[in-house]
Amino acid sequence: MATYLHQARRAGLSRLDTKGSPYLYILPFFLLFGAFGLFPLLYTAYVSFNDWDLLDSGSHRWVGLANYREMLQDAYFWNALGNTLSIWVLSTVPQLLAALWIAHLLNHRLRARTALRMGVLLPNVTSIVAVTIVFTQLFGRDFGMVNWALGFVGIGPIDWQANTWSSHLAISFIVAWRWTGYNALIYLASMQAIPHHLYEAADLDGASQGQQFRRITVPMLRPTIIFTTVISTIGGLQIMAEPLLFASSQTPTGGSDRQFQTVALFMYEQGFREFRFGYASAVAWTLCLVIAIFAIINFLLTRRIAKDED
Amino acid sequence: MTTLADPIQTGTTPSPPQRRSHRRRSFGYPRRGSVWSYGALLAVVAGSVFPLYWSVVVSSQTSDAVTKVPPALVPGGHLFDNIARVFDTTDFGRALLNSFIVSGSITVSVVFFSTLAGFAFAKLRFRGRKALLVVAIATSMVPHQLGIIPLYILMADLGWTGHLSAVIVPGLVTAFGVFFMTQYLGRAVPDELLEAGRVDGSSTFGLYWHIVLPAARPAAAVLGLFTFMQAWNDFFWPLVVLQNNATVQVALSALASGYTTDYTLTLTGTLLATLPILVVFMLLGRQLVDGIMQGAVKG
């Protein structure tokens, strides 16, 4: 009898183990995501409807849509949005074109293949802080190597931080430098998936290599190109560390005239310099919606292109 | 959403060695690299390496070298003087220690919990498995960076501002890690082995500990090194929440701030902060490249 009970208990425990333990094993992930990922994002929406001062913690007042109304009339917000879009275009377009070209170069039979690929990827593993600091020195007005090199082609020293266009160019260059190699590897992977018989046929028809690149490679890469464009857009909309560190004072205004302040940096300024948590949350949530819209466009575009190819 | 664009988020599963496809046949596609393509690629690689090389040059020269025209182009002999100066100027040793603590704890924890969850998703049968896996992967789309204000309020309520736990705890397990391990364990652990373990009376956790964890070792190493690099390079959240208890990236940004920046000092700091990443990159750069390319094909 005792043995029977013992066995029954063991069987019960074992059933509990097989039924219950899977949930136990995935629980840490969902708990942590809930607490530190999902909750803050939803709570941002709540904070954004309040007048919420960081310094006076605990005191907040429901103000409804007032923060959003203020934001839409805030010239600094629109300035930041314009800067964000400008830096995004200036960094993404050359970056993806260069990546396409580098991928094409890598898509040959090469010696030291792995070393070349790693060399191309190196910028992507160095930290944003390190990269931005080094480039800020290189873009220095008086002793930077960029101005020194430009001097040879007769371009006078540029104060890169001072102007809107020059600061956008410099920041875009830094962003593009860090991401070009990564995108090149993604294009390379897709290029390797293109069936070789297409090129063989083109060879027989006497098409040049340039024609083959334009007529075969690029069209076959279209889904990947759209994918990388949208991913770069999503990343580009959140740029904040590069413009913060590009100003040597590291004040989050993005230059003396806010000439290179991005939306994310504006959010940081309002939250952690002006201590206006409610207003900063409204900015964050707006940016979040913009990103969501881009994500949906991404989904629709890629699906449509996949359909076209069927 | 930067997370999405990150190499580490793209789905990098080390696969068992595959037979090379019949790429090298009579027609010879892809074409052999010409001198011109080697030259262009070497120029690109030189451009990739240059900023790093430049920080080696500057950090091994005396302070006046950075203002020299034409610029110095070869390293000098003052590297150790400058390193000593960095440690004298700021508490860089503390920052390095903090970064090792943060990145080390996050790495160990991510590997452990991701393998555990990956085991459940790949090898155990339970209701809602597929739906929960989809939810877990979808969470990587959430732009965490935009939640920093409530996250800060939360940390202030917990009394964690200024403490390393504010950076460590939110990073203890990642959606990418779970996805990565699910993919790997699905292929690497045969079901028969687990069945045999069950027949021998092993508990589920016993299966994890004695069979799954040893089998996961190659993928765990790659995931661990990726996670370490990511945690080491993290800047924005530590800047916001750690205040004076800086990690190395925050200390580096502090070194670079000010009306006139001492670039010899700053670039020496940059070199010190990048060195651990370079070591990791040398160890696993190949797997990282493979991972990005596989993720792209799948993605």
Task: Describe what you observe in this structure.
The complex is a heterodimer of chains A (310) and B (299). Chain A has 310 residues and is an all-alpha fold. Chain A folds into two domains: 47 residues, no CATH class; 236 residues, MetI-like (MetI-like fold, Orthogonal Bundle). Chain A is built from 13 helices and two strands. Chain A has a two-stranded antiparallel ribbon with strand order 1-2. In chain A, a hairpin with a 7-residue loop joins β1 and β2. The longest helix of chain A is centred in the N-terminal third of the chain and has 47 residues. Chain A is globular, with a radius of gyration of 26 Å. Chain A starts with a helix and ends with a helix. The relative contact order of chain A is 0.13. The model of chain A has no long low-confidence stretch (mean pLDDT 88). By secondary structure, chain B is mainly α. Chain B folds into two domains: 45 residues, no CATH class; 206 residues, MetI-like (MetI-like fold). Helices cover 67% and strands 0% of the residues of chain B. In chain B, α4 packs across α8. The longest helix of chain B is centred in the C-terminal third of the chain and has 36 residues. The N terminus of chain B is likely disordered. The chains are: A mainly alpha (310), B mainly alpha (299). Chains A and B meet through α1, α3, α4, α5 and α7 of A and α1, α2, α4, α5 and α6 of B.
